[in-house]
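HOLO CASE FILE
Compound: aspartic acid
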Amino acid sequence: MKKIVVKFGGSNLKSNEDLNRVLNVVKTYNRPLVIVVSAFYGVTNYLEEGIQKVQQSINHIDEIGNFIRNLKKEAIESHIHGKNLQDEVSKTIDARLEELGNCLKGIHYIGDVPDFLEDKVLSFGEKLSSLLLTAILKHNGFDAEEKLPEHIGLTTFGESKNASIDFKTSQNSVQKALGENKIYVVPGFYGISPKGRIALLGRGGSDYSAASFAKLINAESLDIWKDVDGYLSSDPKLVDNPKKISNLSYKEAAELSYYGAKILHPRTVEPLMEASIPIRIFNITRDNPTLTPLSIINHETNITNSVIKSVTYSDNFSVLRLSGPGVGIKPGILRRLTTLMDNHDINIISIVTTGTCINLYLEDIDLKEATLLVEEGDFHAIASITPLDSKSIVAIVGEGIMTNYGFVYRMLQAVTEEGINAEIISGGASDVAAYIVVETVERDRAIRVIHREFFN
Ligand code: ASP
Ligand code: MG
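Model generated. C-alpha cells follow.
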C-alpha cells in the first residue's frame, strides 16, 4: 500500500488545541503515513534572533533553552500521562536542547556565524517538533517513529540556506528508511549536504521537504494541512466573498505561489508535477475535518467559466530601470548584468526589456546595492539609471488565460477606470498567468477592482 505524506506547518503547531487536532487527523487517516512537521509557530524566527543575541552574551543560551522547554512542557503535560513517562520525554527533549546549546556556544566563542552552523541551529525548531509529536503519537497508541534527514540520507545539492534535494542520491536510502507499515515523523526544512552537514531548504521550506519525501517514496498524495479553507479567488482580507477553488493544475498552483499566494511554498509543486502526485489541501481548524480536500492540485486543467481562478499579489519588490539608446539589443549586456548581480548574491526576479530599456525586477532590499553596482559597472550603453521602489505585482492566474482572449485587457480596463496606473504589463510569458505592476499603495484597490471584474 502506498503511503500518504502529510504535512503539518507551524500554524498547526501553536497551542495544545492544535496538537489535539493533529492527533485527531492522524486517527482519521488510520493508515501508515509519513508526517512532515515544521517548527512550532514562531520558533524559527526565535532561533534566528537567538543566534544574534548569543554572540553578545552567553547567558542567552539558557534563556533560549528555557523558552523552548516551556513551550514543550505544556504539550507534554496535557498529552502524556504519568509522571514517569513525562520525565522520560522531557529528558529526550533536554538532550536535544543540549545539542542546540552546544552549537550556540560554538557561535558565541567563535564570535561569528558560519553558514553551516546557522543552518544547524535553525534546524532544531523542526527537530524538536518531530521529537515531541512522535512521543505524543506513541503515547496515544500509534506505531510511530521519528526519522531524521541526517540518518536517512536525505541528500542535497549545495551547502546551505537554499539547498535543493538530490533525488537520485537520496532515493534508495530514504525509501528503505521509510519502508515499513507505520507512522514516520520527519522534521521538514532541511537535508544533508554532500559534506554531511545540515543544509536548509529555504525559509518556509518544509512544504518543499514534504513534496520531496512524497516524490522519493512515490506517495499516493501529499496532504497539506492549513488553518484556512484552501485556495480562494483572492485574499479574504481584501475582497468580499472570495470563491473557493476546488481544482487547480500544477501550473496554476506554481504561478499562484510564485506571485505571492501563501498556501504553498513556491517550490512545492516542482517535485510532484513530474511524478504526477496530487497535492491536497485541508483545513485543520474546521469542526470535523474530513479527508475530503478543499483544494486538489494535479495535472487536470479545469477551465472554469471565469477562466481566471485567482487574483494574487506580491509586494516588496523594485524595478531598476536602465535606459539608453539600443540598450535592449546590445549583445552581452544582459549577461554582464546578470553575472554582476549573481556575484553579489542579488536575486533577479525577472527581466523585461525593450529597445531602449532594461528593467530588472529585484527585491526591495537589493535595490540600493544593485543601483550602485550598475553605476560603478562601466556600462557604456546605459545612459540613465532609475531605481523605482515599493512596487507590487498583481497577477491573474488561470488555465486558458492565453488561449482565450481579452483577460489582460479586462484587467487593465478595471484598474484604469479606477485611476490606477499599471506601470508594467505582462501577458503571454506564461500561458496561465498575466500581471501588472502598480505602486504598493494602490495594490489593495487594484485587487478589488480586478476581482470584481472577473468574479461578480
Ligand atoms: N520553520 C521554517 C520556517 O519558518 C520552515 C517552515 O516552516 O516551512 O521558515
Ligand atoms: Mg509554511
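CASE NOTES: The pocket of magnesium ion (ligand 2) is lined by residues 9, 204, 207 (CB under 6 Å). The longest strand covers residues 310-323.
CLOSED: yes
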